[in-house]
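Researcher: I've been going back and forth with a colleague about how VOC family protein might be arranged in three dimensions. Neither of us has a model we trust, so I'd like an independent prediction. The organism is Streptomyces roseirectus, in case that matters for your notes. Sequence below.
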Amino acid sequence: MRLTAVTLDCADPLALAAFYREAAGWEPHPRSDDGFAGLTTSDGLFVGFQKVAGYRAPTWPDQSGVPQQAHLDFDVDDLAQTEARLLALGATRPPHVPHVPDEPRWRVLLDPEGHPFCLTERRASAEPERRV
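Model: Here is an independent structure prediction for VOC family protein. You can compare it with whatever you and your colleague have in mind.
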């Protein structure tokens, strides 16, 4: 079994796809529209963005409102530089992030529709390179 797609609910699929396209360099799906947009990663994973009427952003880390539901994780070479670039593209910092032991090499941001995603500074390894 192999994961082939991940889809995020949102209010504006084209805008959210544009954010992740700029953030990660993923290729746009040719049949994207205002109801559903998609991107394809260099590894062939399809990331979809579907319009939901009355969409409400997650209230992460507070689970008493709308729970996080899902989040994406990205390895990056330079944590500070990548965080600054993503903030310039429209990401935001959540008001509160729970403490984690490895915090110096880890960040949580929210995409423009409020979905949390993580950045982790890549350590030297034999894993294939990915970029944000």
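Researcher: What would you highlight for our discussion?
Model: I'd start with this: The chain has a mean pLDDT of 84. After that, consider the following. The first strand starts at residue 5 and ends at 10.
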